[in-house]
Amino acid sequence: MSTLAQTLDARRAAADRSAVRTVAKHIGGVLVGVGAWYWPIIVLAAAIIALIQQRFDALDGSTVQYVVGSARWFAFSLGVIVPLAMIRPHLAAGGTRRALFRGVVRGAGLAGASFGLVIACLYAAEQGVWRLLDLDWHRSLGLDESTGAVGFAVNAVGEGLVAFTYFLLGAAVSAGFVRFGPWLGLVVCLSLGIPAVVADIALYAGPATALAQQVLGLSGPLPALAGLLVVVVAAAATCLALHLLLRSIPVKRTVF
Amino acid sequence: MFDGPEPIYLQIAQMIRAQVLSGELQEEDQVMSTTQFATTFRINPATAQKAFGQLVEEKVLYKRRGLGMFVAPGARDRLQAEHRARYFDEVLAPALAQAALLDISADDIVAYVRGHRPAGGSSAAWEETS
Amino acid sequence: MNPLPPFTARFDDVEVTFPRSWEMGENGVARRVSGSVALENITCEFPAGQITGLLGRNGAGKSTMLSLLAAFRRPTRGAVLVGPDGDLRDPWEDAALTSAVLVVQEGGDVLQDEKVEATFSYYADLRPDWDPEYARELLDLFEVPLRKKASVLSRGKRSALAATLGLAARAPLTVFDEVYLGMDAPTRFAFYDALLADYAEHPRTIVMSSHLVEETERLFENVVLLDRGRVVLAEPADDLRTRVTSLTGPTAAVDHLAAGRDVLHRQHLGPTTRVTVHGPLSDDDARAAAAAGVTIGHEGLEGLLIHLTRSSREGTGDGGTTAGRPLAGKESHR
């Protein structure tokens, strides 16, 4: 092997690594920048709803559950905007599509992890406040009412996976439009939405949970895990779709 | 600079030759590097390189490794000899042809030349060749 | 990171066709774009370590051709190869090559909604040969503000930013695609100077596409001329400057000299005729011209470009009409 080939190989490995890291870092930066506005507003909204309900004596269980539902759409819109804006600069800066894909998945992971943690923390905090006020905490949406460590884990992982899926979905939708134009793009997007809807149903309506409970006769945390498993599959499907869409995406001289 | 019709490297070589002839560049003087040349005159460094290559071949310049290009010893003499040889054919002959067209007599021309002989040390050289 | 030698870029019978497609317009509204052939039978090379000018009119396919080098898209047919001499490869999805080939297009490919410094750190991370200090120097030189959003910069400043990215990345193959657009004259010349100085110090392969021929031609060692998606010529720049010659003088004498040559243009001014011919004149021709009172002028690269692209476009009466004609014309003089 010549030294030139060795140099190329070393540079390829290093360039790939740093490109993936840079994409993820960039998405992380956007998440921090935009999240600094978004999450305080969410907390404020939950507090205002609670105060209003309290005022009319209608406070009944969690109010956080009403506001955190928007988080996935927030993740979705970030997924639409951020990777799309990066395609051209990323390729021009010398990155590959593969590195962009990996970085976007990693960035979606960051979004999922941070969203999951923040939402789990919000629920935990809400439960604490409710306990202080001597109120009974429960929620009407979602498959699991566990509190404590189990509840925290289920919220963090479940909401995290949903945010992850929605972020990737957003990225896939914009890539679909870039590749296929508005009409075919719309069809692609609608079919792309299926895994996300599946993830949603699995987490909230809980058919997978019910199935696990009633047909398979599982109990304890296992039915909830079955629901999460479905979410994982949905996330993986979205990931694959994004990979296929980004794999050979051309760069057009257009201003977005 | 270098707006003439010939390829730029020829124009550069010509400029350096003229500088050596006029004494603006003395023997053993360092000439600009290709980089300085390129940035000063906003030309491709390879073009300057080509000009230098030609001048090295003509022994007007020589290269000192790691230091740059210098005017070769005896460069001025060689250039003078060469230009002197071409002077009659390339400069004087067309002027005389023009004079013939205008009916200017040889005596008038000689008289003019005697009156306008360049001053100083070079007049001796002038006398020898004429 | 071990540095790489300057890259060669080769186009081997490349064709690019655009299918009928949709594009997102500036207003965010999608519009239909009809299909077209952008490049046809492109075979040429950008030699390693040299500055090559890619010239041609607007819409000749320059940007499309250069986009292939950065793997922004794939050719419909043929091969695009880049790399150190003797080891040319397809740059598509090969990070070793894409991180060593930089195509800077007008306006620069920057993170629009972020501060300029975000784009800088992005390039710094992805470019193995990036020189941060040099980048700072250039930003100072061009007075580009780091802390402003890229999207609010003026066109000239965006071009200056693009030029900075292109120079500071020190990529073994660096392509400037009409990057000076919007720059004022002093900034353009500052850019040319910086380019020459840095090129001399850090040899690499540079390609500049341009239609400001007069201003840039002396930077070029080679010239590739593109017209309507085809390569019209690819030759050392010095050979081309004397390729188009004008003969001015008495009509009979001019006609005699021009006989048998490829006449590109003819102009009568009373008894005087001015003819522009394609192809070099020999010393004998020059002497004959001087004797007959005919003045010889050179039209330079700009003249050549105008004549070659005009004749191929409009098909003047005294020649063929295809883009290949000027090459055929050249052969007829041998």
From TrEMBL, chain A:
The chain crosses the membrane at residues 27-52, 64-87, 99-125, 149-171, 183-205, 225-246. It comes from the Bacteria. Keywords: Membrane, Transmembrane, Transmembrane helix. This is Uncharacterized protein. It comes from Myceligenerans pegani. The lineage of its organism: Bacteria, Bacillati, Actinomycetota, Actinomycetes, Micrococcales.
TrEMBL record, chain B:
It holds the Pfam family GntR. It comes from the Bacteria. Residues 6-74 form the HTH gntR-type domain. SUPFAM superfamilies: Winged helix' DNA-binding domain. Keywords: DNA-binding, Transcription, Transcription regulation. This is GntR family transcriptional regulator. It comes from Myceligenerans pegani.
From TrEMBL, chain C:
SMART domains: AAA (SM00382). Residues 310-334 are annotated as: Disordered. One of its GO terms (molecular function) is ATP binding. Pfam families: ABC_tran. The keyword Zinc does not apply. It comes from the Bacteria. Signal peptide: none annotated. InterPro entries: AAA+_ATPase (IPR003593), ABC_transporter-like_ATP-bd (IPR003439), P-loop_NTPase (IPR027417). Keywords: ATP-binding, Nucleotide-binding. Residues 9-253 form the ABC transporter domain. PANTHER family: ABC TRANSPORTER, ATP-BINDING PROTEIN, SKFA PEPTIDE EXPORT ATP-BINDING PROTEIN SKFE. This is ABC transporter ATP-binding protein. It comes from Myceligenerans pegani.
